[in-house]
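Task card 7
Instruction: Convert sequence to structure tokens.
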Amino acid sequence: MKWKMLASFAAAAAVFGASAAAVTELPEKGDWKNDEALTAKPNDVLEYTGKEIHATEKIKIDPEKITKVSCDFRTLEPDVKATLLIGFYVWDKNNRIITPRNIQVEADTNTELLTPCQKSDARVKVKDGANIKPGMVMAFNVADDKSDLPNFNVSSGTVKAVEKEADGFLVTFNSVINQEFPAGAKVRMHSSWGGYLYIVAAAPSGEFKTYSGTFQGKQWWPGTATVEPVILLTKKCKSEFKNFKIEVLDK
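Output:
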């Protein structure tokens, strides 16, 4: 991995209109995990056969600054209709992985526990479950203003069924919830999806093309501190990429 400062204010301003930039480049096989699937070719081109590849090192993120990711990419099998996704595996400051389970709130699902829950329970009773649906996960000890995000007090299992009872709603999960909270604890439903935070989504061509995207502020998931770049294709095929760069600018 190569890190450098852009040579001058003028160079940075020409690209972003900002005062300065730090650039991280990932041009070598060793910059990427499972590099046995990579072949180094002339002109810093990397050939890859597969669906997904991750950078070997995490990169610190300052959400207040503009982060730009760019990569020259082409498919060597244009008949395979794959979508190119470029994004990040995300961690918080305590090195905990953040996924949509921790941050993606399901609307109008805030409620509270009517009875205590234990880690070994697969059912909980809540005051209002009218908008709770199968497939969701339950986040515990939530804040109405969402200041708890990212929330890591999330049920291990997903909702299997919801039954209305005389004094509330009984929510059954497909496995134990692995959380312990008293009656009255505030809860909220989240998406059960895992996955990455994507900055680029495109249909690659058979010719090299630069794909890029920028993030700043609330575009990052709450709590983002470090990221691991990811290149993902929705279908396995042979491809080539080069000039993978992450540029971080002052506001």
